[in-house]
Design a protein that fits this description.
33 strands, eight-stranded parallel sheet
Length: about 1000
Amino acid sequence: MLKDFRIGILVLLLTITGLVVSSSAPNDDDGTRPPSVAEENWVDSVFNAMTPDQRLGQLFMVAAYSNKDKKHVQHIDELVRTYNIGGLMFLQGGPRRQASLTNRYQAEAKVPLLIAMDAEWGLDMRLDSSMHFAKQMTLGAMDDDQYVYQMGREIALKLKTLGVHVSFSPVIDVNSNPDNPVIGNRSFGENKDQVSKRGIAYIRGLQDHGIIAVAKHFPGHGDTDVDSHIALPVINSDMARLTNVDLYPFQQSFQVGVMGVMVGHLYMPLFDTVRTLSATLSHNLVTGLLKEKMAYKGLVFTDALNMKSVSGQYKPGEVDALALVAGNDVLLFSEDVPVALQKIREAITAGKITQEDVNYRVRKILRAKYWAGLNHYQPVDLPNLLTNLNRPLSRLVQQQIYEHAVTVAKNQDDVLPFHRLDTLRIATIMIGSNAGSTFGEIMGKYQGGAVYTIPNRYAPDSSFQRLLPRLAPYNVVVVSLHNMNNTPVHSYGIGEAALKFIKQLEANPRQKTVVVAMGNAYGLKYLEEARTLVCGYEDNYPSQLVVPQVLFGALPAKGRLPVTVSPTLKAGTGLPTPDFRRLRYGTPESVGMDSRILSQIDNIALETVAYAAAPGCQVIVAKDGAVVFDKSYGNYTYDKSSPQPVNSTTLYDLASVTKVAGTLQAVMYLKDQGKLNLDAKVSEYLPELRSTNKKDILVRDVLMHQAGLKPGIPTWERTVGKTGLKPTFYASAKSADFPNEVVPGTYSTKAADDSVWVWTLRSGLLPKVKGKYPVEYSDLSFIIMKRLCEKILNQPIEEFLQKTFYQPLGLSTMTYNPLQRYPKSCIAPSENDTYYRKTQLQGTVHDQTAAMIGGVGGHAGLFSNANDLAILMQMDLQNGRYGGQRFFQTPVVSEFARSSEAGNRRGLGWDRGNPEKPEGPTSNLSPASTFGHTGFTGTCVWIDPQNKIVYIFLSNRVYPDGGNNKLRQYNIRTRIHDVIYKSLTKT
């Protein structure tokens, strides 16, 4: 009587707050849609063809595994064939194994099986080698609901591919208890409106794409501190809270037509007096509240009946009958179907449930099967399963979720995003992570600071103290916490020694500390004293990819905490940060490219290695400011006995790409600053030319290779005699007179650069043709331009470039003479020089003239990895705007990149494609505005301002012999360029 009175009061509250479906709502069979004639005919025919016991079998959805033995499979076979069970809920296993078993079980079924899965955050909730999208706390942190819908869509499409019809998601519990051990980060948050909106978006994403969504855990599992898998939680909600908070998302989901709801294993004293009675078994809750008072007509699923909160109170089979009597339609995870059937028959005989009611529920299940398409059942397409599961668009959605969720909770010192990289020395410490993680890799793409790992998140204090002295050179320390857990009683996996270490760092006035929690937002309460605090919510590939990009301003921070962590970190906390237009890292689909077509680059790059065009290479493709392809192939050499694989940090000799990545940057800077007149004579800046045949050559003509300069002149050849290197030019020990390292153990005279300059001044000019010098590519052009730049700048060009461009851009690998900063093991070898230096070159410039003058030539000498070169080229593509800075004040790059002379394809310093020669340096599919350069060692950069594409190819094709022309013979670089354009999707 008391319970009936309470339900009456609750109904009154529900009516007042609008949570009861009005009497004008359609009263269709399932409460959401009118059945068609075809549907009714199919349901009637299937229902009438079954015996009474076979109809009862439809009520059961049994747990199935694809990672268990033959005995388990045979057990499921028997349940399907003998007891006509209605469905299967697949748990652990793998996609292909599950698909095979699904086909097997469906083939045995008299009535097609309704297949279900728990896929709250994707198939990987249950299956190996499957995609993880995001847990609902992460979704709750986002600034845009559309990505929840998109995630629901992608999960739905994967489930359909796998032959699944039902997803036990979303969780629409309002998580108001931070100590909740079972819901926690499975909830969208603590705000009922946000939970409702995100839950509805998820439901629509699933159901719009053919998957039955099941909202859970009715009537609300958010305010508990007990795990219902272990024991029965008690929800002591009063009527006001239950009405205004917990039931609100469920009623909202009912109004938009959610097709299923799962009743949780909870005890609510508000409705029942029996302390051990779970909501799943409560007639007052399932029938009285859910079905009658809230007028829900969809499928009602029990939570798993094997969970200890209910199974511990009853024998297998008994609980199934009790759940059916309570009002549930589908009995999930029955542990003993034969006994359960007997108990249900007994309940019908005893009048606890009518046959008509049972029949009605069976028909509801059959209608759900019709909606899922089982009236025209098709087996899973096994040959194309993996291709269909691995939709490229899923990767895009996966990353977008984290891009919109990552939250900057505190930024008291305005450290984020990192701005002037030339003023910052950043060290990264990853606690709970191993070396080689994505987080550390992406941090390294923006700056060259050390990355330290402490794999054990509970490491002793000594492990952290040993690290402290190594941090002395750095003024910023990023501490990322990985492998966190969701257990409040274990501090979410944050060790005491780690917390102590963070406090020590925070106390150092000479360093700024950035703390990043790659896990449950509730764990931030242990970190709230940090002055700069970021939450990544999860610790997986996309989160580790995105968070460093937010730290460096390649992506703006958009997320907000979906839960209250502490009095100072409340729900809604989140500081937006600016987009500095740094190169970011994403998926091809994010910029309108087809990743499956782009992957054809793999075949061409591997062909490079297989055909010995080069032992290894790096390829980067960026579009619209995002690197969408970044791979390394092969090894440093062809030696198979001790191969050293190329990786993304390997440095390559850029050869003539130095012209545009080095000298031309300085030239453009001087023009931008108004210190260089392109139409002036070079001799106005270099008076020594006035007495030479070059007195009248113009700066513009030199840059366009039309000043009459010869392609090259003898330089190093003059320094080699019949018996070897001339002692006038070389010594075996470094000294003030011989300071320039040609190769380790050989040093050139300090006058070497002047000697080359004199030889350049004395060199002849090409004969004119029809009164004009012909276009002839020449290294002398950039030898001259380097000299000119150094004269105006009044400093060595390498110092200027480092200070003005490379350091502010964070280009840690871009350098001349890399052996001064890196061991040989970081640098790909080039030629085995048998004619000049008589040694294998590795870390010293391949170009002989550049080597002779100390490694810094205007035409050659730079080393870099592909990533740093891509950053520099992206800055050029953006006309000098990059990382929150302006490197050029005018659109000088665009000016230099244009072709301005008839009969000359080149721009000012930049090379361009040759439309008259199909075998030219660029793809014939690229627009005429494409500019860049190639290098003798097997390198190229191409920038397409029309499509905003940057393409980098680095290799050491000259190893071990500079005469190896297979790279050109097989047209490797250009064919890769072709693939890039073929991958562009039409819009």
